[in-house]
Amino acid sequence: MTVRYRPNIIITGTPGCGKTSHCEALISGLNNDDSYSHINVSDFAKENKCFESYDQVLDTHVVDEDKLLDLLEVELEKGGRIVDWHCCDVFPERLIDLVVVLRSDNSNLFDRLSKRGYNEIKLQENLDCEIMEVILNEAREGYQPEIVIALESNSAEDMDENVDRILAWIDNWVKDHQDGVTNELDPDLKAKLEAERDE
Ligand SMILES: Nc1ncnc2c1ncn2[C@@H]1O[C@H](COP(=O)(O)OP(=O)(O)OP(=O)(O)O)[C@@H](O)[C@H]1O
Fold first, then answer.
1. Contact indicator for 84, 20 with CB cutoff of 8 Å
2. Which of the two ends of the chain, N or C, has the fewest CB atoms closer than 10 A to its terminal CB?
3. CATH number of the domain within which 154 lies
4. Sign of the dihedral defined by the CA atoms of residues 35, 11, 67, 145, in that order
5. CA of 155 to the centre of ligand 1 (A)
6. 142-174: burial string, b at 16+ Cβ within 10 Å, e else
7. What torsion do the CA atoms of 157, 98, 15, 116 make, to the nearest 10 degrees?
8. Which of 67, 111, 65 is nearest to 85 (CA)?
9. Alpha carbon 22 to chain centroid, angstroms
10. How many domains does one find in the chain?
11. Which structural domain range is residue 122 located in?
12. Which Pfam families is this protein grouped with (predicted)?
C-alpha cells in the first residue's frame, strides 16, 4: 500500500508560458524542503533515455510515453512531486491532486519563443496551441474540474501571485491529509470491481 503525505501537482501550459520558472519559485517557496521535488519531464526523459525518435520538422524529440510514464509513476507514488510538462492528461488521476494550467498572451509568448530561436513552424504551432486552449482543454477532459485551475502568466507579478496561491493550497492540502492519502482501492470496492469483471 502506498501512502502519500504530500500532494502531486502538475504545472502545465504551452512552451514558454513559464512552467519551469513557476516550479523553481515553488520549490524555493517551500524552503527547498526535500519532501518536494521539481520534475522537469523533458530533462527526466533525456536522463532516462525515454526518446523513441526525432521530429525534424518540429525540431523536437518524440517521447517513448510508456517507458516515461512507468518511471514517472514510481516518482508520483512518493508524493510531493511538482511536475513540469506541456502534456498533462497522461498521468493516472489517482496520483494527481492539482493541475495548474498557465496561460500567456500571444504577444508575450511570441517574444519569449522568438528569443529561443524557435523555427517558424514550431513558433506558429505553439502560438496556435495557446490560442486554441489545447492544453487547458486536455486538462479539463483528463481530470475532475475542481482540481484544474487556469492562471495568467504574463508578468513577474502574476508569477508571484500564482506561486503564493499554490503554496497556500499545498499548506491546506497537507493539513487536510495528515493521515496520508492511500492509493490502495477500498477492499470492498476492489472485490466488487473484480466480481463485475469476472461476470
Ligand atoms: N509570468 C512571467 N513573467 C515574465 N516572464 C516570464 C513569465 N513566465 C515566463 N517568463 C519568461 O519566459 C521564458 C520562458 O519561461 P519558462 O522556461 O519558465 O517557460 P516553460 O513554460 O517552462 O517553457 P518550456 O515548456 O519550453 O520548458 C523565460 O525567459 C522566463 O523568464
1. yes
2. C
3. 3.40.50.300
4. positive
5. 10
6. bbeeebbbbbbbbeeebbeebbeebeebbeebe
7. 50
8. 65
9. 11
10. 1
11. 3-198
12. AAA_18
CA–CA distance, 88 with 129 (Å, rounded to integer): 14
Q: Which atom of ligand 1 is nearest to the CA of 13?
A: 21
Q: Is pLDDT at 76 greater than 70 in this prediction?
A: yes
Nearest residue (by CA) to ligand 1, atom 15, is: 18
List the grid coordinates of 52: 523513441
Grid coordinates given for 111:
517574444
Question: Binding site for ATP: what residues are annotated?
Answer: 16, 18-21, 116
Span 32-51, pLDDT tens digits: 899 999 999 999 999 999 98
Protein residue with its CA nearest to atom 5 in ligand 1: 155
Total residues found in the chain within this entry: 199
Record the pTM.
0.89
